[in-house]
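so my prof wants the structure for this chain in the tokens format not the other one, which i didnt know existed until like an hour ago. anyway here's the sequence
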Amino acid sequence: MNNIYKKAFTLAEVLITLAIIGVITAMTLPALINKTNNAEIVTGVKKYQSLLNQAITKYEADNGCIGNLSACNAFSGASDHETAWNAIKPYFNITKDCGISIGQGCFPKDVVYKWLNGTNKLVIDNQEDAKALLADGSCLLLWDATGNCDYPSSRSGKDPMAHLCGDFWIDINGFKGPNQIGRDTFSWRITNIGVYPTGHYDDYTADSNGNAACDPSNSNLSTAPYPGAGIGCTAKVIKEGAINY
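here's what i got, hopefully its the right format
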């Protein structure tokens, strides 16, 4: 009778194969996780572009100033964040309202947010701007510019950026990291005629060619368009539908 030999992997071969799989997984998994996280952030940025504009539009409709936010006087004070917030907050689904109080936990407590280039910005929870924790876990900050929607944020002096009322800042994923401008935290311009992503073509946070200034390798945090800060990343993300920086 013929002997029948069955081929099989040796223990050494199995261990080597598992080791190779482990190395490949270790190399590719972080990239996959980062890609997934970025996709979620992009979705959040697009969502808030719509929600923020809807909130302001509803406020205008209820108060008879559609297309002319200054006529409602929510932003009529000299950086009166509390008055502006009290007018706008009914149009958000809020789980915690911190108002202009500091250290109340509407943003991560004692966490120093970073600019896009990795340098420290500040502890947002300690700022006297209006802050709230929203029902979807996002953190919102409202800053009121001075002059009742007459603060200049335009390169050309033209609308919409010529008549800035204030800013919205949103940490899209709330208390999760990295707590960094242009990565999970983005800003929008509240203008007299609508809400626009910071870095919009005529905003001073865009470059002279109308491109959103968003460069993590740049150290410039002091002069417009502040590419190292990442303030203009909001417009870039919405335009490209991705985080390509």
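also thought this was worth mentioning. The mean pLDDT is 90.
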